[in-house]
């Protein structure tokens, strides 16, 4: 990889664009995507950090490092610096899980593009409308109150609707979870919704899906179904 802070190499740009699409990533997620070793993936990410395109975060002891794009890295992708992500102990576990799921989905479904929440927000802003989000209601000004999924599995050919993917590690308030599931059941912009849930969440999530009468639209599976990370 280039050691200059100028234009990134083709390999660097490919890496930066992938991070821009899925959001914060880990070396293990990149290794899964590239079918390579974690050490090799970590070296690629470390090189991006050295030239100022990425930042390495280690908020949780004993857990994988998380890599995000810097403002410089975002600009190299043609994206606004405002999309820079901050990682904290509060969101780190969820970001690690989402990176793992994104990589696994990309490998299992090569005819699809995997996008993260920020990428979806960006596309919806450009389109001026909802593309793969659930409408929870409307605000005082009439604007739709949207719930965006953690990830979107988007068909490259565009011949079918995208699939929304939610990664649930912690239990939400029951009323809130039912509200979200009901909104997904009404959503006509996605083919369906896949929840990948930690064991502690499975029971409450199942109740919410049933309570929202969303069993035809929402499928819940164990988080580990895609493999360990």
Short structural summary:
By secondary structure, this protein is an alpha/beta fold.
Attribute tags:
2 domains; 8 helices; alpha/beta; 229 residues; two-stranded antiparallel ribbon; globular; Arc Repressor Mutant, subunit A; single chain; 9 strands
Report strand %: 15-25%
- Subunit arrangement of the protein: single chain
Strand order of the largest sheet: 3-6-7-8-9
Give me the count of strands. 9
Shape: globular
Q: Termini, distance in Å?
A: 26 Å
Order of helices and strands: HHHEEHHEHEEEEHEHE
Tell me the structural class: alpha/beta
Overall radius of gyration: 18 Å
Helices, by number, come to 8
Mean pLDDT: 92
Helix content: 40-55%
> Which regions have little confidence, pLDDT < 50, spanning 5+ residues?
none
Number of domains: 2
Largest sheet: 5 strands, mixed
How would you describe what is shown here?
The protein has 229 residues and is α/β, with parallel strands linked by helices. It has two domains: 10-86, Arc Repressor Mutant, subunit A, CATH 1.10.10.10; 109-226, no CATH class. It has eight helices and nine strands. The strands form three sheets. Strands 3-6-7-8-9 form a five-stranded mixed sheet. Strand 6 (151-155) and strand 7 form a beta hairpin. The model has no long low-confidence stretch (mean pLDDT 92).
């Amino acid at each position: 990889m280039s050691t200059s802070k100028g234009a990134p190499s083709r390999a660097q740009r490919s890496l930066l664009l992938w991070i821009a699409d899925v959001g914060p990533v880990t070396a293990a997620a990149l290794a899964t995507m590239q079918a390579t070793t974690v050490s090799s993936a970590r070296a690629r990410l470390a090189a991006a950090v050295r030239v100022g395109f990425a930042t390495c975060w280690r908020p949780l002891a004993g857990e994988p490092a998380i890599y995000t794009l810097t403002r410089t890295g975002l600009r190299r992708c043609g994206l606004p610096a405002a999309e820079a992500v901050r990682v904290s102990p509060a969101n780190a576990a969820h970001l690690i899980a989402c990176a793992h799921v994104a990589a696994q989905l990309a490998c299992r479904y090569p005819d699809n593009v995997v996008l993260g929440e920020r990428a979806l927000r960006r596309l919806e802003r450009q389109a001026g409308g909802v593309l793969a989000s659930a409408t929870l209601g409307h605000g005082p000004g009439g604007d739709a109150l949207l719930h965006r999924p953690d990830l979107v599995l988007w068909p490259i050919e565009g011949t079918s609707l995208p699939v929304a993917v939610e990664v649930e590690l912690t239990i939400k308030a029951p009323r809130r979870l039912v509200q979200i599931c009901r909104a997904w059941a009404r959503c006509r912009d996605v083919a369906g919704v896949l929840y990948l849930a930690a064991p502690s969440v499975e029971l409450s999530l199942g109740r919410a899906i049933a309570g929202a009468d969303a069993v035809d639209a929402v499928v819940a599976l164990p988080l580990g179904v895609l493999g360990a990370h």
